[in-house]
Amino acid sequence: MSTKAVQGKLWSVAPQNWSAYFEPSFLPMYREALKQLNIKDNTTLLDAGCGSGLFSSIAIKAGAQVSGIDAAPGLLQVARLRNPRNNFMEADLETMPFTVDRFDVVAGFNSFQYAGNFENALAEAKRVLKPGGKLVIGIWDKPEMSDATNILKAIGYLLPPPPAGTPGPFALSEDGRIEGICNKIGLKVVHTAKVPCPALFRSLGEGVNCFMSTGPAAAAMNHNDRQVVEDTVAKAFAPYHIADNMHYLHNQFLLFIAEK
Predict the structure, then answer these.
(1) Chain center to CA of 94
(2) pLDDT tens track for 47-71
(3) pTM for the complete prediction?
């Protein structure tokens, strides 16, 4: 089964919870990207791995003409409801259904690392970019920089060992990895930033629902009862209780903007 088919199924398990609880924590990263992009009316933008379409909504409000692709039909359904006048398609990051030199901007937040081959996905993004266009890459910082790492690690203990080479959320976080690949395929990195993306949950239930919407949790439910996975996530949240029933995670992302 292809990477697209596997990831698309996993990330379609609870798209409404992803939209409500996890994706809003990416807002600081989205805002930092938009500060650098100088979006104008009629800027053409591809949201590559658009998820439930929150960044697309913000870019549309800024004036961009937005198209989106994602492997997960469940997330695409939410993106279409959010942005009914725009085009959102189920597609693979390594085989984008667009002509050469189509977009001023291609943005991929928490997406490119899940492609079967990251370098191929970036090369495909470069292909559909106009000369002088900008590629945005947003990925998790090193594991030790985010509290979410420990929640995901707890879920990971419920899974069999992944096949060698299986991509994960921190696969590209090492120093210089993104810059090296961009340079190899002829993209020049022109901006980098570390962006804190904290997540506050008003109840433990919100936190559990948030992580139950992720691909790793969906995969864990293929091998365990749902209650086992939920209990594992709830236990992993214990160190992040701050007051009343609120829980807080400090997470950090890396943002790269490269030019064709």
Answers:
(1) 16
(2) 999 999 999 999 999 999 999 999 9
(3) 0.94
